[in-house]
Design goal:
12 helices; 14 strands; globular; alpha+beta; 3-stranded antiparallel sheet; binds zinc ion; 47% helix; 4-stranded mixed sheet
C-alpha cells in the first residue's frame, strides 16, 4: 500500500507530494531535504498492524495539506524495498517496488522466507526468549514446554545436549535474519573438535576459567538482548537483508537506498554487536591456540609471554595481530575495524538527510574530523556485524557445553520473592 499526501515546506513554502510505501513495522521515519531550500523535512508514520491503521504525525519543518494538489516535487519512500537511489529520486515514476524485482535471484523464495520471518517474529520469538529465561534458571520442566514448541523435540538429558538445544532455538530463528555465512559454522565445528581431540583437558580448564570468572553469564546476558533488539527492529532495516537474495555481484552499497532512517536506534545495536564479537573472539583465539599448542597463552613478536586475558583486555584495534595469525580467526580482523566503530559511536555522529549519509567522527586531539558512509552502507555494516556474532556464537555454546553451568558459582541464582 502507498500513502500519498502533500505538504509544504515551513521555510520556503514549496509544495511536495509524498508517497510512502507502508511496511510491517509500528513506526516509519522518512527524512529528505526540501528540493528548493534544503531544509530537512522529517515525516513519522505510526502503524498499528492489528487494525491495520497508519497515522502520520505532524512533519518537522513542513505542514500537511488537507488534500492532494498538483506539485512539481515528489518524495518517495518504500519501507520494504531496497533499490538504487535513482529509483527513489523525486518524480512520479513507477514504484521501486516494481523495478527492484529483477535484482532477485528467486523472488518467490525471498517471499517465502519473508513469510517465515513474519511468523518467527509473531509466533516463535517470544517462546525463544522464554526458553532462554528457563535455560538460565534451569527450569527444565518449563524449558521442555518451549523447546517442544520451537524444536518439536523432547528435552535431552545431559547439560551439553541442553546447551545444544538452546543454541538451536537461536539457530532456527535468528538464522533467517542474517547473512548466509554457514561456511563459517562448519569451519568452527572442525576447529573446536580439533582442540577437543588434541587437548581436551586444556579446553575444559579454559571453560572452567571462563565460568568461574563470570564471563559465561556476562556474555549470555549480552547475546539474548542483542538478538532481541535486532529482530524487533527488523522492519526498519529489512531492505538491506534483501541483498542475501539478490543476484551477485550487487550494485555498490552507496548507490542503494534504505527508506526508513533510524540511525540512533540502530547504532546502539551495531555497537553492542561489535562489543560482543570482540568478546567471542577471545574464545575463538583460545580454541585456536589450544588446538595448535595445547595452551591459551601466546608469545608476542617481541617475545613477551601473554595470557588469553591479556588479549581480552587489549583494544579491539590491537587484537588483529593475534587474530590474523590463525585460519579460524583472521576473518574477524576487518570486522573489528575500530575506525567504523569509533566513527559511528562518537556522540557527534548523525544521519545527514541532505546526502543520505551517516556522518562519522574521528577525534584528532581537539579537532573533530568527519567522514561519511551511505545510510545503506551503515545498515549493511550492522547486518554484517550481527551476522558474524550469530555465526561465531557457536564457540560460546560449544565452550558452555563443557562447563556444566552458566554461573560463576554453582549455586542457583537467587530469586526475589
Ligand atoms: Zn524549503
Amino acid at each position: 500500500m502507498i500513502m500519498r499526501n502533500c505538504l509544504t515546506c515551513s521555510s520556503c513554502g514549496t509544495a511536495i507530494t509524498t508517497r510512502f510505501g507502508v511496511g510491517h513495522g509500528t513506526k516509519q521515519v522518512h527524512s529528505f531535504p526540501c528540493p528548493t531550500c534544503g531544509v530537512v523535512i522529517t515525516c513519522v508514520m505510526r502503524l498499528d498492524q492489528d487494525k491495520p491503521d497508519a497515522h502520520l504525525e505532524d512533519p518537522i519543518n513542513a505542514v500537511w495539506l488537507p488534500e492532494l494538489v498538483e506539485t512539481q516535487h515528489f518524495a518517495l519512500f518504500h519501507a520494504e524495498v531496497l533499490g538504487p537511489r535513482t529509483d527513489f529520486s523525486p518524480g512520479d515514476g513507477p514504484s521501486p517496488f516494481v523495478t527492484s524485482g529483477h535484482f532477485f535471484e528467486d523472488y518467490l523464495e525471498f517471499q517465502k522466507q519473508e513469510r517465515l520471518r513474519e511468523q518467527i517474529r509473531k509466533e516463535y520469538w517470544e517462546p525463544v526468549k522464554r526458553s532462554a529465561v528457563h535455560f538460565e534458571r534451569r527450569q527444565w520442566d518449563l524449558f521442555t514446554k518451549e523447546i517442544e514448541l520451537i524444536l518439536k523435540e523432547k528435552l535431552k538429558t545431559t547439560w551439553q545436549d541442553r546447551v545444544h538445544q538452546m543454541s538451536e532455538c537461536f539457530g532456527y530463528s535468528v538464522n533467517w535474519f542474517v547473512l548466509d555465512l554457514f561456511h563459517l559454522w562448519r569451519h568452527q565445528a572442525v576447529r573446536f573438535a580439533r582442540a577437543f581431540v588434541a587437548h581436551s583437558t586444556e579446553l575444559q580448564v579454559f571453560a572452567e576459567d571462563f565460568r568461574r570468572s563470570g564471563r559465561f553469564i556476562h556474555l549470555w546476558r549480552q547475546i539474548v538482548p542483542l538478538y532481541d533488539a535486532f529482530i524487533r527492529s527488523y522492519p526498519s532495516w529489512m531492505p538491506i537483508l534483501q541483498l542475501r537474495y539478490w543476484k551477485k555481484p550487487h550494485p555498490p552499497l552507496d548507490t542503494l537506498f534504505v527508506s526508513d532512517k533510524r540511525f540512533e536506534e540502530l547504532r546502539t545495536i551495531y555497537l553492542n554487536a561489535f562489543e560482543l564479537l570482540g568478546r567471542i573472539s577471545v574464545i575463538a583465539l583460545a580454541v585456536e591456540q589450544i588446538a595448535a599448542t595445547g595452551a591459551t597463552g601466546y608469545t608476542t613478536k617481541k617475545g613477551e609471554a601473554k595470557t588469553i586475558w591479556d588479549f581480552e583486555a587489549m583494544d579491539s584495534g590491537q587484537k588483529h595481530q593475534q587474530l590474523s595469525k590463525h585460519a579460524g580467526t583472521k576473518h574477524l580482523v576487518p570486522l573489528l575495524d575500530t575506525k567504523l566503530r569509533n566513527g559511528i559511536g562518537h556522540y557527534a555522529a548523525h544521519y545527514d538527510a541532505s546526502t543520505d549519509e551517516v556522518v562519522c567522527i574521528k577525534a584528532d586531539g581537539a579537532t573533530l574530523n568527519e567522514w561519511r558512509i551511505s545510510y545503506a552502507g551503515f545498515c549493511y555494516a550492522l547486518l554484517e556485524m550481527v551476522s558474524h556474532v550469530f555465526f561465531e556464537q557457536q564457540y560460546f555454546f560449544d565452550l558452555l557445553g563443557l562447563s556444566k553451568d552458566l554461573f560463576a558459582t554453582r549455586a542457583k541464582p537467587k530469586v526475589k520473592p
